[in-house]
Design goal:
Layout (H helix, E strand, L loop, with lengths): L6 E6 L2 H12 L1 E7 L2 E6 L18 E6 L12 E3 L7 H11 L2 E2 L11 E4 L5 E4 L6
Parallel strand pairs: 1-4, 5-8
Antiparallel strand pairs: 2-3, 3-4, 6-7, 7-8
Length: 133
């Protein structure tokens, strides 16, 4: 038996705006949109049903759901994003900022090899140095 990371559920005030923001940021697709739930999935999903052999080959999705309360403290869980070695990390950071992200301070060292950003609703995430894998 094996489990697969299926989705990450994100509480937010505006699930539709957040889902579309993250879909654009990660080059994913808004797959389903309901009033109180929006699902974002990788663009290149297999068209055939998943089998035991390809079950783990599809990356996780994201589900955005509404909550009434504001975010008040640093996230206990966050995403780490990494560009490929062939991509310009600083250009990716600039692109995310252009989409509405902002740089945030969460106590990271001045010489950190990652940049902490927050999405439009304040959820922190990191852009790491470029990775081959």
């Amino acid at each position: 038996m094996s489990l697969r990371w299926y989705t990450l559920v994100i509480d937010c005030h505006d699930p539709h705006a957040q889902a579309h923001w993250w879909a654009e940021a990660l080059d994913m697709q808004v797959f389903l949109e309901f009033e109180k739930e929006v699902v974002v999935l990788p663009k290149h999903l297999p068209t055939e049903p998943l089998t035991a052999e390809n079950w783990t080959s599809v990356g996780p999705g994201m589900v955005f759901v509404p909550v009434p309360e504001d975010k008040t403290v640093k996230n206990r869980l966050h995403l780490d994003l990494a560009p490929h070695l062939s991509d310009d990390r600083d250009a990716e950071i600039d692109r995310l900022i252009g989409l509405g992200a902002r740089r945030v301070e969460v106590g990271q060292p001045a010489d950190a090899e990652f940049t902490v950003l927050a999405d439009p609703e304040g959820n922190e995430f990191c852009v790491l140095s470029a990775r081959e894998r």
